[in-house]
């Protein structure tokens, strides 16, 4: 069996891979919501998918050369500005690339360079992608949540991360628990506190991590949402009636639960 040795060279390669994946995540974050609108409305605009057309400046639509498309480095060389129209390039691009590199290193460190590490990487990067899309559009695309739900069940069928039983119960419990909280909340307050995307995201988390990590996930999500909500309210960046997306907080909770799953399961269930 291949023995995993954590050398600086390995981490450097993993971080570089993370930067490239982050660059692709930027493409998904920008294009997937546009593509999904194409599905529901007939539009005369040129269709785009995740591959075609090649990367372009969102502001002047000039196609980018290879040199303008290097993760992180292009942003630094171009000093954060488009070479053609001088429009500022969103800081989100390098942040997503750096976060992806960090996530890749954490996944390999916690799970090793094996199938578990790869699954952790895919799961964490999907959560990152969903969070940013949710912040921008207040939607969580089924294309990611439902794909990961099935992937999580399949992964747990063939590996021993959690049992198939825990995974399937996790998916069912994830969806129904949030759905019930949603209905109860609507009954009491006459307002909708979450969306159906949140139920599917929570089902995806249950399928990937097993039912036992759902409770810690929702606890961390609720606490972080309250802290950030109140902070934004105090800073005047949020109005009392305005909604903040819940997906990013579920993602934070699930990421923490995946990375420290042993400690959290120990603490909650004394396994
Ligand atoms: Zn431009």
What tags apply to this protein structure?
single chain, about 0% strand, about 65% helix, mainly alpha, about 270 residues, 2 domains, binds zinc ion
Task: Specify the biggest β-sheet.
Answer: none
Order of helices and strands: HHHHHHHHHH
Specify the structural class: mainly alpha
**Approximately how much helix is present in the residues?**
55-70%
Number of β-strand runs: 0
What molecules are bound to this protein? zinc ion
The radius of gyration over CA amounts to 20 Å
Task: Report the principal-axis shape.
Answer: globular
Low-confidence stretches: 39-44
Distance between the termini: 28 Å
Question: How confident is the prediction overall: mean pLDDT?
Answer: 91
Percent of sequence in beta strands: under 5%
Instruction: Give the total of domains.
Output: 2
Number of helices: 10
Multimer state:
single chain
What is the structure about, briefly put?
By secondary structure, the protein is an all-alpha fold.
Explain what this protein looks like in three dimensions.
It is a single chain. The chain is globular, with a radius of gyration of 20 Å. The protein has ten helices and no strands. It is mainly α and 271 residues long. Mean pLDDT is 91; it is low at 39-44. It has two domains: 1-112, no CATH class; 114-271, no CATH class. Helices cover 67% and strands 0% of the residues. The structure holds zinc ion. Zinc ion binds next to loops.
